[in-house]
Fold this sequence. Notes:
Structural class: mainly alpha
Order of helices and strands: EEHHHHHHHHHHHHH
Distance between the termini: 59 Å
CATH class of the largest domain: Mainly Alpha
Radius of gyration: 23 Å
Helix content: 55-70%
CATH topology of the largest domain: Methane Monooxygenase Hydroxylase, Chain G, domain 1
Shape: globular
Strand order of the largest sheet: 1-2
Number of domains: 2
Strand content: under 5%
Number of helices: 13
Amino acid sequence: MTDSVRTQTDSRVGDPHLKFRAATPYEDYVRASVLSSLQQPLTSDPGEMAFLVTTQVMELWFTLIVHEWRTARDGLAKDDLERAMDALRRSISSQRALNDSWRPLAALTPAQFNGFRAAFGEASGFQSAMYRQMEFLLGVKSRSMVAPHRGHPRVYAELAESLSQPSLYDEVLSYLHRRGLPVPEHVLERDVTEAYQTDAGVEEVWRQIYADPQQHDSLVVLGEALTDIAELMLRWRSDHLMATRRAMGAKAGSGGSTGLAWLEKRAGRPVFPEIWTARSYV
């Protein structure tokens, strides 16, 4: 780093640099002041700040996980299993951190939650575009879930593009096909804008992989990474459901849903379903 960027005044070896001509290099890189300026509570309730920070942290984790799953998907499309596995392993660590983010909110009492809930208006977590990107990558496609973002052209275009692209699981199955496994043609040629549906032929592929781990060692490792991702996603939904049940019971959701009942219905949606069901036949 040159003197045009910073001025070093400490002569003792090992002391940190304390004077800079402009913002610190840390600020330039991390944009910490931008991040810390994004919390704008709408009430005087002290709990609202925790809710805002936690929700924004979750959005950052969503962004990182989407990045990793896209990297894994693109690696598989190029038959680069090592690159894909590296990204999947990183995403698993990120998912664990994401799930831990529920802790500041998980014990809210109804009175505490009601202290700032009215500030939401019609805002609701299901409107998160980056969370929707995550679900699309898992194969949980829904055209109707793109529609709420029409008022934000860039976000709408990004979601529409993701809807039209193969999911991570689509690329996993294409990769297995290229490795010589009998993935059904109708699965490989399916309309990727539609939600993935469980297929008996795909279940048989995973049964073959798990039944012969010596022949398919690298694919078992892939399957177990996907299993970790699926399990963590199911835990995320379950923790969301539990936090909602604890804070607001069966009240209607702020975004117009039935609240708890809507979350219960979605919490059980399978992720990579045949990886789970195939285990019954190994």
